[in-house]
Amino acid sequence: MPQTRFTKEFQDEAVRLALTSGRSRRAIAADLGVGLSTLRHWIDRRREREIDAPPEERQEDMAAELKRLRRENEILRQEREILKKANGFFRQGGKSMKFQFIDAAKENFPVTRLCQVLEVSPSGYFAWRSRPASPRQREDLVLLAHIRSAFTLSNETYGSPRMTRELQDEGLPIGRRRTARLMRENGLKARQKRRFKRTTDSHHAFPIAPNLLEQDFSAERPNQKWAADISSVWTGEGWLSLAVVLDLFARRVVGWAVSDSLHTELALEALRKAVAIRRPSAGLIHHADRGSQYCSTAYQAELRKHGIRISMSGKGNCFDNAVVETFFKTLKSELVWRTVFQTRAEAKKAIGRYIDGFYNPVRRHSTLDYVSPVQLERLAG
User: What is the domain range of residue 328?
Assistant: First the structure.
């Protein structure tokens, strides 16, 4: 093609692509619809101009090129951020979801850039924005307000199953899929960090009791079966050990204690609190692992004093005490892994609030048909 068909701006852009894009000149020439020899000629002529140009003109050209590159880098950065933030909306599909994202992100990015990246027209976005909300969209706004409130009250721990039950019990007509969608679209999901410590010491000479539960964690009434265990929580002052006793009927924590060391007195304190609060009759089964704290003479004597039958897990079988293991996993995922405790006192206070203020009276348990331990015990009379 004759060179006269191409403007100076077109030739300069072709040269810039050839020199900075990293692609072959043949590929660029083919994309632009020019001959390879023509592109080479433009490049040579550009270089001749740069050599012949006075120093001040070359500096101006370099400044203009630097400004252009910075502008392009900013555009690329914006596009990358837009795509990153819009990833969840892309999975939903549909222009309406893209328009919703644009409306939420317009404070951080230009609307024209958002529309360009999401491949929708600005006129389409403004037309969507000017339309009145549908009845279902208005319902979503109301439901979202309830979801945000319940999410905050649950310490940002409820997923869609518990959240659905929470809203339904408040009389709101909502299903699991709609709850999950609203939570997903609004980023209502907690992150977790993990740190572990081994707390069971089964290398001791204390006697081992038989396994009376045999992984049967069901109970017909309160104070029929208890389960106990110890775990640890990391703080800025070091590990804090937590001993708990759970009533298997309602999965309720009936006794707990903390200490900076793993000693028998820690487990005894939790047990004594449970006995003082619940005053169980003789025949209650108490199940624990083979840790030295629970096999110790002092602990087993305390159990026998109250007529409590002793049960212990099989060697190295964590499933034999799965209910308490599940409690610790829940505690850590909903509180510990999401919090940085500077002191042991701070951790103790937070654990107390979680157990006595949320887990026992409020938290909905999937194994209890999404009611709380306190609610189940009230229903049982």
Answer: 225-379
